[in-house]
Amino acid sequence: MVSPDTMQMWDPRGATVCDLKDLYTEFLILNEARILDLGCGNGHVARNIATSEPSATVVAVEFDTIQHAENLKAESLPNLQFEFGSAERIPQPDESFDAVLMIKSLHHVPANRMDQALREVRRVLHLEGVAFIIEPVFRGAFNEIMRVFNDEKDTRIAAFESVRDTILSGSMTLVEELFFLSSLKIPDFNAFEEQYVKVTHSDYRLSTEQRKEIREKFDQHMKPGGAVFKMPMRLDLLKKKN
User: Fold this and answer.
1) Cα 152 to the center of its chain, rounded Å
2) Does residue 12 register a pLDDT over 90?
3) pLDDT by residue (tens digit) across 48-76?
4) pLDDT of residue 28
5) Domain locations in the chain?
6) Closest by alpha carbon to 130, among 28, 24, 20?
7) DSSP the chain
8) CATH 3.40.50.150 given to domain 4-138+151-181+232-240
9) With 70 as the cut, is the pLDDT of residue 38 above it?
10) What is the pTM for the complete model shown?
11) Which residues are registered as beta bridge partners of 235?
12) Given this model, what pLDDT does residue 6 score?
């Protein structure tokens, strides 16, 4: 177990590039498990788990109505179910999951509702069930581009503090704290705009000056094969206690 008193937002020592799939297969027991992917986005993680582990049952919840509609149109899998809902009010019964995943989604919850969201996570977990929470750290070259039009410093700090407060309350135990780098490759600036500016969950209206600044920052990382970023991430693995 890790002491919450020593928790940090980021520690670069020993942080290596990690693949997300390697992390959840290492830290989670997926065989015959009930998995909740909370804030699933386009559902790629939920779909990967459902495909690679047919014995698992995966429920993927998304609050963005447009993205949720797209998820429902995608090819169905017998052990994957998409639902509309929020982290603050999870549309599932008590003690119904072995693991809850929140992958870069907690900081999208309004700061004054993050504690409620984590209480909901605890509610739907079986005793000894685990919460697998990954949050981006507010630093790095990609972050410097994004913050021009989407500065998430305060919300990311709030997410970290909410996780820490949950542990300090005694309702969940911190089993693992891991700092790592996530590799991101973007073919060109047009692809960046499509994926990160023209999103369905937010209405970013960039000024001419903002777009110019973003383009200049992005182009500094362009190479023949595209722009590659190493994004700092933290993983907190929490276990439900009595």
Assistant:
1) 14
2) no
3) 999 999 999 999 999 999 999 999 999 89
4) 97
5) 4-138+151-181+232-240
6) 28
7) ---GGG--S---TT--B--HHHHHHHH---TT-EEEEET-TTSHHHHHHHHH-TTSEEEEEE--HHHHHHHHHSPP-TTEEEEE-BTTB-SS-TT-EEEEEEES-GGGS-GGGHHHHHHHHHHHEEEEEEEEEEEE-S-SHHHHHHTTT---HHHHHHHHHHHHHHHHTTSEEEEEEEEEEEEEEESSHHHHIIIIIS-SS------HHHHHHHHHHHHTTEETTEEEEEEEEEEEEEEE--
8) yes
9) yes
10) 0.93
11) 134, 178
12) 74
Tokens 């909901």 found at: 120
Give the tens place of pLDDT for each residue, 84-125.
Answer: 999 999 999 999 999 999 999 999 999 999 999 999 999 999
Cα–Cα distance measured from residue 141 to residue 150, given in angstroms and rounded to the nearest whole number: 14
Residues 6+ apart with CB under 8 A from 38: 61, 87, 90, 100, 101, 102, 105, 121
Alpha-carbon distances of 108 from 76, 119, 150, 164, rounded to whole Å: 27, 16, 12, 17
| Amino acid making up residue 224 | P
Angle at 69 between CA 134 and CA 142, to 5 degrees: 35
62, 68 in Cβ contact below 8 A?
yes
